[in-house]
Amino acid sequence: MHEAKSQLSRLVDLAEGGEEIIIQRSGRPVARLVALPRRRPVAHAFGVLRGQVELADDFDELPAEFVEHFS
Predict the structure, then answer these.
(1) Smallest Cα–Cα separation from 11: which of 58, 2, 20?
(2) pTM here?
(3) How far apart are the first and last CA of the chain?
């Protein structure tokens, strides 16, 4: 455990490189350090919600009392 504390940055680098690090306390394994899976950027797929979203005919119309505040 003491070694893991003093070498944490190096151990994280090793885990990030694909190694699995087992941390022991008094010679007994107590934790495993592994890299998190990399997140892939989300590709925007136009039309993916086609047929699932419905807009009201007046969705872009503002009430007159609201417009007054911006005139």
Answers:
(1) 20
(2) 0.51
(3) 67
Rounded Cα distance between 14 and 33, Å, is 9
Q: Amino acid letter at 19?
A: E
**Where do the domains of the chain lie?**
2-36+46-70
- Nearest in space to 3 (alpha carbons), one of 39, 37, 27: 27
pLDDT tens profile 4-62: 889 999 999 999 999 999 999 999 999 999 999 888 777 778 888 889 989 899 888 88
Radius of gyration of the chain (CA): 27
CA distance 24 to 14: 17
